[in-house]
Design goal:
8% strand; rod-shaped; Arc Repressor Mutant, subunit A
Length: 180
């Protein structure tokens, strides 16, 4: 049951309670009028006044409760946005979980992919994946390899269609062909 339904129920209860209080007070007023017509006065035989002896605390308390329920119902229907905020947050959390699961899956796929390469090639592929479009000169320092060893490893990876090179000035930019 959402907040709007609860708000509607509270308003209905508040209105019914107001109606019940009004009917009760009207009946009591009618009863007092009948006694006044019979006695031709508002004083009883023992000298007590019917108006002074009345206790209206129950009516005041009932009116306060009835008004409070009605106001709370209106608030829940028109002003309280807690339910909306909670559902929006739930959607964001769900999306974040799906993204985390996809990211974890990609990591697992990449780890499985790397298992078919030697240690140097794994270092190279990890660095290229971390920084797509990395320059060959930067990669050399990142993986701590000589120019010759890096060039031979990159040539091997390129011939197996694992990476692609794109000329960039005096160096090359490196990209993984398969996306993870």
């Amino acid at each position: 049951m959402n907040q709007k339904h609860i708000g509607i129920i509270l308003i209905i209860i508040g209105i019914l309670m107001s109606g019940f209080l009004f009917i009760s007070k009207s009946k009591e007023d009618q009863y007092i009028k009948e006694i006044m017509l019979q006695n031709e006065s508002c004083f009883l035989e023992d000298g007590t006044c019917l108006h002074a002896d009345r206790d209206i605390t129950i009516y005041i308390l009932g009116a306060i409760i009835s008004a409070s329920l009605t106001i709370l119902g209106v608030y829940l229907i028109f002003f309280d946005k807690t339910q909306k905020i909670l559902s929006e947050n739930q959607i964001l959390i769900s999306e974040a979980l799906v993204e985390a699961k996809r990211s974890e899956k990609n990591k697992d796929e990449f780890a499985a992919f790397l298992s078919g390469f030697n240690v140097e090639e794994q270092k190279i592929l990890k660095a290229i994946r971390e920084q797509t479009g990395i320059k060959q000169s930067t990669l050399r320092f990142r993986v701590d390899m000589s120019k010759t060893a890096l060039s031979l490893a990159l040539k091997s990876l390129e011939s197996r269609k694992i990476i692609s090179k794109k000329a960039s000035g005096k160096s090359n930019q490196l990209f993984l062909i398969k996306k993870f």
